[in-house]
Amino acid sequence: MYEERFDKRGFDELRPMEAETGIIPNAKGSARFRIGNTEAIAAVYGPEEVKPKHFEKVDKGIIMCKYDMLPFSVPDRAKPGMDRRDMEISDVITNALNRAVILEEFPRSMITVRVYVTQADAGTRCASLTAASMACADAGLPMRDLVAAVAAGKIGDSICLDLTKEEEDFHEGGATDVPIGFLPSKNEIVLLQLDGKVTKEELSRIVEMGKLGAMKIYELEKSVLQGRFSNESKS
Ligand code: CDP
Question: What is the pTM assigned to this prediction?
């Protein structure tokens, strides 16, 4: 039984969030997104010539994305360099961004996305995807929509939004984690993974809760980007 959350949040409540763009002057676009004690920064470069050349596509651009958890982001220093988990997360973020960025506008070109987790308290792939999506928008890339991503899941018998690491490690009854990436204006899911066991009915409740949480993240993303572009037009 999990009747009250460790941090006293409502079961459908997100952790406090912060977002900003334009944090890395040397990148074409950049963003920082924090949710609770999980934070990611993203930098976007390009469109530029594809390297290595054999990855080039004649009819559209490609996204090369790398996710990295910085050594000091977790209590036990994370090993530097890409492991299997980093590769998997880089792939799922790339797949989601492929649906968001209009790549047909950049044939034979490459967009590079680098995401670094500075603090990890669960939900890093979702925070990274949200930051990467904002960085793409900050770079002025044409997009079908912004991606808003958050994990939802089940702890004991309770369906919950935006799990912390302490909740993911919940033993009595176990915890299930479902990271969700959402294009709100298209009502399209671009990232969906499942770590644990749930019934079909529970999964639909989890996905619904995740989509509602993602809508709140989307509102924050939009307000930060609107502020950023309106400041640019004033200067
Ligand atoms: O971060 P996310 O929930 O997307 O992915 P995960 O592989 O389910 O990892 C869950 C959490 O475990 C991370 O957010 C970190 O808090 C923690 N973790 C860690 O402490 N050390 C690692 N090498 C990997 C993950």
Answer: 0.97
